[in-house]
């Protein structure tokens, strides 16, 4: 089944850039999904998707997990919203012009990701913004366009962590870059400047994480890892889960245990104190919380290599298309 997925994606990737009508239809569909999520975050049980008397605020308290929208749990919803925001932003970077009509949809998706506090999709968008700099910032016009989108994205994703004052400053910076794109000579070569800026931003991000002492748990844990103070409880027990799955790999290494059978392998459950519930909870491990590790454990190294190959082919094709 993994091979069929990989083949399908590779064949579809040969269809080149999607037409504007398809992009707008996809953005509109995500916009409706986003509006539904906003209603649910506000405590309104739109479409009756939650059982009576329950809602988003009861996640982890009155029912296990967290669910939002019609796509599944918060992680799945966040992944789709991040993919939609990325597609809209890359379309604007690539084409500009009328594709700026997609910006409100990308901004709405980024705002929702922050409200949901799903770290993985937010990190993916931040990494995308950095990788896009040397690819789309080769000219002065492209650099200004990248600056406007990256500043707005960071303001929306990080407003709770960096504060509303800095977020407002980033929003004003985004507006300034947008105006400069239209007034400066857009074809001036800026490849060296974009590479230097990328190196500076990476160094700045690493320094900020290394010295972080704030309240946001993912950044606090990342800072502890950089200081060599890791523990199995980090990432909501993800490190512990990965350790258990890796230890179980030799039992059925070549073919795995079958799709979605990780919960049947008798892995030692994860036990931790839940501050919201005020008591210790024990969780059965039925997912690796890492798609590639999950594929390796359930379907073997052949399927895992196919899965990784999809990501590699997509990345290489994208870089070739951009002339990188």
CA-atom Rg in angstroms = 21 Å
The order of strands across the largest sheet is 1-2
N-end to C-end Cα span: 33 Å
Structural class: mainly alpha
Order of helices and strands: HHHHHHHHHHEEH
- Uncertain runs with pLDDT below 50, 5 residues or more? none
Classify the beta-strand content into a percent band: under 5%
Short structural description:
The protein is about 65% helix and about 5% strand. With about 325 residues, the protein is mainly alpha-helical.
Structural summary, described in words:
This protein is mostly helical and 324 residues long. Helices cover 64% and strands 3% of the residues. It is built from eleven helices and two strands. The model has no long low-confidence stretch (mean pLDDT 86).
Which features does this protein show?
mainly alpha; two-stranded antiparallel sheet; 324 residues; globular
Can you lay out the helices and strands and say which pair or pack?
Elements: H1 2-13, H2 20-41, H3 74-95, H4 103-116, H5 119-136, H6 140-162, H7 164-183, H8 191-210, H9 217-226, H10 234-248, E1 270-274, E2 279-283, H11 291-321
Antiparallel strand pairs: 1-2
């Amino acid at each position: 089944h993994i091979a069929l997925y990989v083949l399908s994606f590779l064949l579809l990737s040969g269809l080149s850039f999607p037409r504007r009508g398809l992009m707008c239809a996809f953005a509109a569909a995500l916009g409706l999904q986003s509006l539904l999520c906003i209603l649910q975050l506000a405590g309104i049980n739109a479409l009756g998707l939650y059982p009576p008397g329950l809602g988003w605020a009861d996640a982890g308290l009155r029912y296990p997990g967290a669910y939002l929208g019609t796509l599944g749990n918060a992680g799945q919803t966040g992944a789709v919203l991040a993919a939609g925001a990325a597609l809209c932003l890359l379309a604007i970077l690539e084409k500009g012009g009328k594709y700026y009509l997609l910006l409100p949809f990308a901004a709405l998706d980024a705002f929702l990701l922050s409200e949901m506090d799903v770290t993985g999709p937010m990190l993916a968008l931040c990494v995308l913004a950095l990788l896009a700099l040397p690819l789309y910032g080769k000219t002065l016009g492209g650099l200004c366009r990248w600056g406007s989108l990256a500043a707005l994205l960071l303001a929306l994703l990080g407003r709770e962590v960096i504060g509303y004052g800095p977020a407002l400053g980033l929003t004003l910076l985004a507006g300034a870059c947008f105006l400069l794109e239209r007034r400066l000579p857009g074809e001036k070569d800026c490849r060296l400047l974009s590479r230097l800026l990328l190196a500076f931003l990476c160094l700045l991000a690493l320094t900020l994480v290394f010295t972080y002492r704030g309240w946001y748990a993912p950044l606090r844990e990342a800072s502890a890892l950089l200081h060599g103070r890791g523990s199995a409880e980090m990432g909501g027990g993800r490190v512990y889960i990965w350790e258990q799955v890796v230890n179980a790999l030799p039992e059925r290494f070549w073919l795995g245990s079958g799709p979605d059978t990780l919960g049947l392998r008798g892995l030692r459950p994860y036990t931790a104190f839940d501050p919201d519930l005020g008591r210790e909870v024990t969780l059965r491990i039925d997912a690796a919380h890492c798609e590639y590790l999950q594929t390796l454990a359930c379907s073997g190294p052949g399927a895992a290599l196919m899965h990784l190959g999809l990501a590699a082919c997509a990345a290489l094709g994208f870089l070739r298309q951009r002339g990188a």
